[in-house]
Specification:
About 60% of the residues lie in helices and about 0% in strands. By secondary structure, the chain is mostly helical. The chain folds into 2 domains: about 5-70, 434 Repressor (Amino-terminal Domain) (Orthogonal Bundle); about 75-113, no CATH class. The protein is elongated, with a radius of gyration of 17 Å.
Length: about 110
């Protein structure tokens, strides 16, 4: 996968608009658009700025981008089928636990109270 393809795929997956990214990276919208569609390259410093801005807008997006370049897309360790038996009452508790773990930024087990 080419760099601009991985970049564009990441923006799509994380629903990051070119406008928001350009603003966060202090770059022009035109540059972001041309790069994401393979019409223009960017310097190493600009790519670093774009990736940093992407990460600020959508945590985890830089890691996903890098995984695409490495040819090893990030996959969930659990399948959606494992959640089919969760009741509607349990879903909010599960989402709260996920949010707490995400914010903690580590691998501790989070208790739902």
């Amino acid at each position: 996968m080419l760099i601009h393809e991985a970049f564009n795929e990441t923006l799509k997956r994380y629903k990051i608009s070119g406008r928001a990214l350009a603003q966060e990276a202090q770059a022009s919208e035109s540059l972001v658009s041309q790069f994401r569609h393979g019409k223009k390259g960017v310097t190493d410093d600009m790519l670093d700025s774009l990736l940093e801005a992407m990460q600020q807008l959508a945590p985890g997006s830089r890691k996903y981008f890098c995984s695409l370049l490495a040819g090893e897309p990030i996959r969930l360790s659990v399948s959606e089928g494992e959640f089919k038996d969760i009741s509607e009452d349990e879903i909010p508790e599960l989402l709260i636990a996920i949010a707490r773990r995400w914010r903690a930024g580590d691998n501790e087990v989070v208790q739902v109270s």
